[in-house]
Amino acid sequence: MTNITLAIPEELHKKMKTFSEIRWSEIARKAIEQRINDLEAIEKIASKSKLTKKDAEEISKKIKRAATIKFNEYSS
Questions:
Q1: Residue 53 lies in a domain
Q2: In total, how many domains does the chain have?
Q3: What is the residue-level pLDDT of the chain in tens, covering all 76 positions?
Q4: Looking at residue 43, what is its pLDDT?
Q5: What is the 3 state secondary structure string of the chain?
Q6: What is the spatial distance between Cα 7 and Cα 10, in angstroms, rounded to a whole number?
Q7: Radius of gyration from C-alpha coordinates of the chain
Q8: In a domain, 26, yes or no
Q9: What pLDDT does residue 75 have?
């Protein structure tokens, strides 16, 4: 098995030490594995998509525009 080293903020390390019974390496390993599974699922879906990058950018612009309008309506 390969080892990795993580840099974490000192405050987080202090909090982790208060739960010494927790196997933090196992928590990190499971989080990494879950993230990889999520990314693989996204790639699988994307590989079957006929949506082009240009289409995705246009949809993104429309969503942002609509969100801005809604935000402005609620802010007024």
A1: yes
A2: 1
A3: 899 999 999 999 999 999 999 999 999 999 999 999 999 999 998 888 888 889 989 999 999 999 999 888 887 7
A4: 92
A5: CCCCCCCCCHHHHHHHHCCCCCCHHHHHHHHHHHHHHHHHHHHHHHHHCCCCHHHHHHHHHHHHHHHHHHHHHHHC
A6: 9
A7: 21
A8: yes
A9: 77
Can you tell me which residue has the tokens 């699922």? 41
pTM for this model (two decimals) = 0.61
d(CA 52, CA 72): 30
Would 59 be classed as within a structural domain? yes
Q: Which of 2, 26, 22 is nearest to 13 (CA)?
A: 22
CA angle 38, 39, 41 (to 5 degrees): 65
